[in-house]
Amino acid sequence: MASRYSKPVRILIVAPSFDILGGQAVQAARLLERLRQEADLEVGFLPINPRLPGKLRKLQTMKYVRTIVTSLAYIASLFRHVRRYDVIHIFSASYFSFVLAPTPAIVIGKLFRKRLLLNYHSGEALDHLQRWRRSTIPTIKLVDQLVVPSDYLVRVFAEFGLRAVPIYNLIELEKFPFRKREPLRPHFLSNRNFETHYGVDCVLRAFAIIQQHIHDARLIVAGDGPQRTALEKLARDLNLQNTEFKGRVSHGSVVELYDSSDVFLNASEIDNQPLSILEAFACGLPVVTTDAGGIPDMVSSGKTGLIVPVGGYEQLAAAALRLLDDPILAQRLIGQGREECEKYQWRAVREQWLNVYYDLSNSRIICLETSEAGSRNIE
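and the corresponding structure tokens:
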């Protein structure tokens, strides 16, 4: 691509680092890596969860105290760095996280007259906007561009009079090697954080049914979070065998989990566009999932995966067993799931991101020139 400007467009990505487990950190890292390869861009990264230096880092191990000190360090970092960039690309979750991370970046970005891009990722958007309408909607209206990773979130924001542009999540196929699973083994994987709305308890109940039919079936449960103790207790209560809780798995090691498994189970109650499903597609795992939120937009039942109703652990188990009993279906889903990943590759989303950045930067230049001209006229 020929250069659109005489000097690079300066972009600051404000997002979680890998110290926070989750899809936003993964997406921010993938996008940052790709954007830094673009000659027309100068890209920086500012973590919403900065590590304090030296002995001060002990404060971040103390409950409540860590929120205060990390927030203060984050806000100070925004004041230091925002002024150097043209476009501030802000990753966003929902509820209190929206207040702690995106809101300061939006306010400080406006203070320095920067162009603001809010990249909202949470599947809880509908509930967030309904419950926090008075504070959240006016804050979002301050940004210049709202970008979401799914058509589902476009529809949600439209219900509140907010226009969002969809740019899909990024998956790096070369980092997720495909393995043909033939025959399909009863080796199952769940890779979601241990939050109530991700329905890992439903996966455990489904696996209990699966083990009644296949005694040597195996389940790997990767992730961590506030529900961990309750989920481990549920596994004991269900007398699950061959079930391993892996805990938090680093982004660099997650590929090994997919490679060791043959079927991906997801039982979200609320969701948007789970990266774990895309990663399962990429590695060749057939997917059985609930129909929460935006999942039906990315998983076509009977084509790229099997979909069951939210909360339907019995249906989840039945669909998983169906895959093992029907190798033709399983292989069709595996092949078409891999093909589905094409629309999430960098070559598919690159132009969309670049167009957004250039449009925002250009509008900022026009705005500044107009403002300066107005000032000269007044003088």
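(Above: one complete record from the training split.) Residues 91 and 119 are 5 Å apart (CA to CA).
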